[in-house]
Amino acid sequence: MLPLQGLKIVELGHYIAAPFCTRLLADLGAEVIKVEPPEGDPFRGWGSKKDGHSVWFSVHGRNKLSVTLDLKSAEGQRRVKALCARADAMVENFRPGYLERIGLGPAVLQAENPRLTIARISGYGQDGPYRDKPAFGAIGEAMGGLRHLTANPGQSEYPPPRCGVSISDDLAGMYAALALVSACWGRDRTPDGKGRILDLDLVSSVFSLMEGMLPEYGLTGAIRQPAGAAIPTAAPTNTYPCADGKWLCVAGNSDLIFRRLMTLIGREELSADPRMATNGGRCEHAAELDAAIAAWTKTLPAREAEALLEQAEVPCSRLYDMADCANDPHFRARGTVLPVQDPLLGEVLHPAPPFRLDGVTPAEMVRWTGRAAGADNDHVFHELLGEAR
Questions:
Q1: For residue 87, which of 72, 73, 67 has the smallest C-alpha distance?
Q2: Which of 130, 111, 114 shows the shortest CA–CA distance to 122?
Q3: Three-state DSSP state, 12
């Protein structure tokens, strides 16, 4: 029994943000009906394929029912209204105003079902001067403040890199999932039981991660600058080169751990140095500490250095690539990496849902993989909606 079993959601999403939101909810047991255009979600064309089927979509569409509809057609709109009439919530990530223009705006859908909660995800939000501008995840990173921070100091000739995944879309999807469940919980505890309209955007989702930077700026005018792999407020914490060309992240920033780290690398005099007695002092002399640690890591392969640091109980990790993740014994023991049978692809590895629920294994939460576009048309339209065949 998963906690969201019985919650009914319609997804009018495409690409990443809304589908990521509903994937989380589906992993937790919600019934998610994904409405795709007749040619399928354009995300099916991204990434690698096997026998013509998207490998990425195996995860992107898992635990969801897939139906295909033309939202601009009379039949498509009738069926969307019918789906929303039986649902608790609908999630969409079209540009603001699109659903209203084709006759499927919130007023229309909530007229069919006043209890319907509608989560709307867009680039800049449903109002404001930028509402009509197009946006993808990279724009959320740029405007939300994250891309400014990913630069490497002293390398102004290179553009600050993206983090490597569509973090803006994923964040907006996570926030949408939280807001949707909260709105449904609140709806069921109010006398009128009316659904709410939720407005989430990529820029605000990234901006919400900027820690104390806004109050710092408001009070002092300070603008946090890129710090590379270091943390300006904790030292020594950085990423260091190893003899085999790999990188090792080391976090030795508590007083006790710092002393253990210095003993391991043979620099006890630094742990006894009054300048290094506190974290504040170590931050002032972080470059000296980083040089000492790097001089040690450069003499060892990453795995060997990591093993020695772990024996000394110093927090550390190699920078994992996907092969490291897929084959790590901890990932496998916790079911974080799941071998899953996909009818379209054969055995494929899935990232497990990031939740741990007592009484349910991660494997049990992945009930099925992403289906072919429209695979559930018959079941949804005829069995769930009761249409005549």
A1: 67
A2: 130
A3: strand
> Choosing from 41, 88, 169, 342, which is the catalytic residue?
169
pLDDT tens-place string over residues 10-20: 999 899 999 99
Closest listed residue to residue 68, CA positions, set 387, 375, 389 = 375
CA dihedral 333, 334, 339, 341 (to 10 degrees): 130
- 169 as an active site residue: the answer is yes
pTM for the full predicted model: 0.94
**b/e 260-276 (16+ beta carbons within 10 angstroms → b):** bbbebbebeebeebeeb
CATH topology of domain 8-208+333-384: Rossmann fold (3.40.50)
Residues 58, 60, 61, 67: what is their CA dihedral angle, to the nearest 10 degrees? -120
Q: Could you tell me which CATH class the domain 237-241+247-318 is placed in?
A: alpha beta
Helix (H) or strand (E) segment spanning residue 154: none
Per-domain boundaries in the chain: 8-208+333-384, 237-241+247-318
Give residue-wise pLDDT tens across range 335-346.
999 999 999 999
d(CA 205, CA 207): 5
Residue among 248, 215, 216, 210 nearest 229 (CA) = 248
Per DSSP, the chain holds a count of helices (H) and strands (E) of 19, 13
